[in-house]
């Protein structure tokens, strides 16, 4: 009896072990399209506009343009900010000195720095999401103190956050800026840009009231439309709408634009040609490790989509997630905030793959016209190597997350049906996060004779764990053979951070080391390209995918 019981326990344990090790089955059906592969991911932004023209800034912008054939949009803060008494650009700080007043109070415009920034975009075929802000010192209703010293522990919300002392001068500033842009770049070019007024007016970025923000928006829109009736303007780029306060700010602003009295014209309504809001996750330190919270970011997007859909007049209006990130402080280094220590490695890249796929799901569910989701991530000058900022590159060397955008950039055509027996839905993640099991899932697209399948193995907890076996099945292929290219981002592939650590984590990098890091930062093949037989139009591809790893499998025929 005892032997029989032991035998049963042993058999059960073997069956349980086998079940645990069985591959995650992912099925892709080429014959079942579900929507366009809208390239909303091709938007990037940053606080520090002066980094645009630096060597590493220009290099990164070139790479962002080269990663995809679609248009790349760039959003930068501080395009109208004055230098004041600041020694130079800093974390969360930049300036252009575009506006000053002479001793008689007459405006003096100087577009030299603004032009150098926009020239950098236009030269590469990129488009600005042009942010009208922040308040020039000579136009601020409270100019002293003006520049902030946040990086040294000082107050962030200083004179640049205040309403204009003269709204007519504010309107004229916008008019002159748009007119100058048309003179320099041509109306055909400028009408392809996007314009917005300010950033996150529901928090300290705006030291005025809600009514004063609406007034500032109205005057700015009036100045823009006087110079360029065909130009596109929108907003309000408020913070996370999972907060009731931010949600009300967003909906009250929409109500003002649709039905309120225009402060600048006295008429009813104000131009509102796209809706902008921000969506952020909320990581924390739990049991000694970083735990992400993708559910918080997706909840922001869900509530904003609900807000847009609550206005029938806004049906099909373009929507832009003006900042779309795992948390809210790009300029906070890992040393400053240990909970941001996920950024250098593969957790950031797998989070990006998983979260952006769920944004597609929410876009489909709420039937919104999602045009853009801005990754607030660029590069930081004069900082330590891999300091743990939310950036795409460090000292000109690409971090793993940038390679996920390269993967997105390769996906074309229409999105097609995907099923996973171990994946989560957007609804699941909003309700419970990704803490109870790994999210092993995929999204796919197809165009003519190619299929791309993006597969990730994500978990909210930044701890080590076993790899997952994946059995990827792609059916509906109209060929007998396919060429397979398998790209990978994990601890071994497309990972300059791991390469840097293997070199001893140097802060003084030799030319040979730099070359090795630069190479390691590029997107790499996991295996050599190979031809594979496709019996009955079905390709079966088994592989191991490490925790926080991302694969892009391309099949061509």
TrEMBL record:
Lineage: Bacteria, Pseudomonadati, Bacteroidota, Cytophagia, Cytophagales
GO molecular function list: hydrolase activity, hydrolyzing O-glycosyl compounds
Span of the signal peptide: 1-19
GO biological process: carbohydrate metabolic process
Domain Glycosyl hydrolases family 39 N-terminal catalytic: 25-520
Keywords: Glycosidase, Hydrolase, Signal
Full protein name: Xylan 1,4-beta-xylosidase
Enzyme active site: 200
